[in-house]
Amino acid sequence: MKEKQELKILLIDDHNLILDAYKNVLSKLEGIKISIDIANNCDVAWEKIVSSNYDIVLLDINFPVYDESKILSGEDLASKLRHDFPKIKIIILTLLEDTFRLYNILKIINPDGFLLKGETNSKELLKCFESIIDSNNYYSLGRKR
Q1: Among 71, 60, 129, which residue's Cα sits nearest to residue 95?
Q2: Which domain holds residue 134?
């Protein structure tokens, strides 16, 4: 990262405390000017995605299902995002441990980054973003601390 980059990032999680933590960690990215938006459900996230020009979207997979929701999960949102906005980098951060479902997410969505919440700390989240910004993929699946 030689020149100062400007990035627009959307953080999607249904827990406000987690969103605040992500924002705090990402504020430590060096040499990069970032603009961060947040969404706490899939429908709001999709509205923001279609009306803005994001470089990176970080999202959780599990969301509560709302009766009037058009997008039922982070998985649905990521698939739609990958299809409709293929240039946006997708980072998935999840608590899921179901190997079959994780395999399908990786195969179908093909995220640029993938982190397991139970195995990720702030240092690794920064490392993931730095890797994605440098046009490399980052997967922490199966790593042990």
Answers
A1: 60
A2: 5-139
Whole-angstrom CA distances from 40 to 47, 48, 65, 84, 104 are 12, 11, 12, 21, 24
What are the tens digits of pLDDT across the range 93-131? 988 777 888 888 889 999 999 998 888 899 999 999 999
Report the CATH number that the domain containing residue 13 is assigned in CATH.
Answer: 3.40.50.2300
Q: In what side-by-side order are the strands of the sheet with 113-116?
A: 32-39, 5-12, 56-59, 89-94, 113-116, 138-139
pTM of the model: 0.89
Asked, for residue 17, whether it belongs to a domain, the answer is yes
